[in-house]
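Anyone up for a design puzzle?
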């Protein structure tokens, strides 16, 4: 190595000087003009051109490895997951069919027992004009009374939930007892567990649900609806949500309810003036089971004809009728084929019946009429 450097020492020094000179010129020379602020030095352009191919190769390799991971290794468990999801879809379809059948059956049973449901038919909007102003009695006054068709014990509600019932009715004003009052009582039930109880107010203005056994499980946050047992509020109206559950008196739970309607900020309410009851009807387009279709297609045993028992008596009656007619009419009017047709009709004859013997003899063209008349066409004038 030293011999090569020593032999080409001057050439190496010349190349090094030229490289340094070119490098110095590249740092000074700018592309685009010296006064242009956006001009770029030549050394930067050369450096970018030399490093860009390596960067492209590095990015291409990185993208290739990422695509391989996401396209193969990451998707190895997709087939098993897809199979599991298909099984879940099939199970959900079966569950949906079962639930639809149960719903159709429930509607049919409702129609059978003449189950009646209450629906809100007509309401009257009223404005709150005052309150009791006492902690012992929680009531409000509305600007509608007897003149507007309001009566005692009518339900009062808002769009959020129930408020109370009409307590006293005046000609133009009515007093409403809120559900937070101690003397109020509303039939209520829990939406999920379907447990029923009585909604009452307390002395401090809270609303509690009573008459629920302590061995029942009532989750916090469950929705409370009206049960319709008080004959004032229709079934299914929102009451509130469960906020706390504790032990009460006499083996009952103490369930605190947050009313759905804000009872302290009432401005407009609706009075339920008229309720409509209608009978639940079953759907006509009920699915037909495959067993019913198959039973319709299978051959069935025909019923026993009712004429078999009376065939013998009918034949005997037929054999006696010609004798009666024979005695009633004259002898020249009775023809010989009549006696032959009556003979096979007797049940004791061993000879099989022929189709010709079953025909009625008087209707055959070969038998002469009973009272023959002389033809009128033969007499010609002389």
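Challenge accepted. My sequence:
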């Amino acid at each position: 190595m030293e011999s090569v450097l020593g032999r080409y020492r001057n050439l190496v020094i010349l190349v090094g000087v030229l490289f340094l000179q070119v490098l110095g010129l590249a740092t000074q020379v700018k592309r685009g003009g010296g006064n242009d602020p956006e001009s770029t030095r030549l050394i930067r352009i050369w450096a970018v051109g030399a490093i860009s191919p390596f960067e492209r190769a590095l990015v291409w390799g990185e993208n290739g490895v990422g695509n391989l991971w996401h396209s193969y290794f990451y998707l190895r468990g997709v087939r098993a997951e897809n199979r599991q999801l298909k099984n879940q879809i099939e199970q959900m379809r079966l569950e949906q069919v079962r639930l639809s059948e149960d719903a159709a059956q429930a509607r049919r049973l409702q129609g059978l027992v003449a189950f009646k449901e209450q629906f809100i038919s007509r309401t009257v909007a009223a404005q709150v004009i005052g309150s009791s102003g006492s902690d012992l009695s929680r009531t409000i006054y509305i600007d509608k009374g007897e003149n507007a068709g309001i009566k005692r014990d009518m339900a009062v509600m808002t769009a959020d939930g129930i408020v109370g019932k009409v307590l006293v009715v005046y000609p133009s004003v009515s007093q409403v007892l809120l559900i937070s009052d101690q003397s109020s009582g509303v039939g209520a039930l829990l939406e999920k567990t379907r447990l029923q109880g009585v909604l009452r107010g307390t002395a401090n203005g809270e609303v509690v649900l009573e008459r629920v056994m302590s061995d029942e499980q009532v989750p916090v946050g469950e929705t409370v609806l009206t049960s319709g047992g008080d004959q004032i509020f229709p079934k299914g109206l929102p009451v509130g949500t469960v906020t706390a559950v504790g032990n009460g008196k006499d083996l009952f739970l103490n369930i605190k309810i947050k009313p759905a309607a804000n009872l302290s900020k009432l401005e407009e309410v609706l009075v339920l003036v008229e309720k409509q009851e209608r009978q639940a009807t079953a759907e006509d387009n009920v699915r037909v089971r495959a067993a019913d279709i198959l039973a319709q297609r299978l051959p069935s045993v025909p019923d026993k004809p009712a004429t078999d028992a009376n065939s013998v008596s009918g034949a005997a009656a037929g054999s006696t009728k010609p004798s009666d007619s024979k005695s009633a009419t004259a002898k020249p009017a009775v023809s010989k084929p009549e006696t032959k047709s009556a003979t096979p009709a007797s049940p004791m004859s061993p000879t099989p019946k022929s189709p010709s013997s079953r025909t009625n003899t008087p209707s055959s063209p070969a038998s002469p009429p009973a009272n023959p008349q002389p033809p009128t066409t033969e007499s010609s004038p002389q």
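A detail worth pointing out: Residues 84-115 form one domain.
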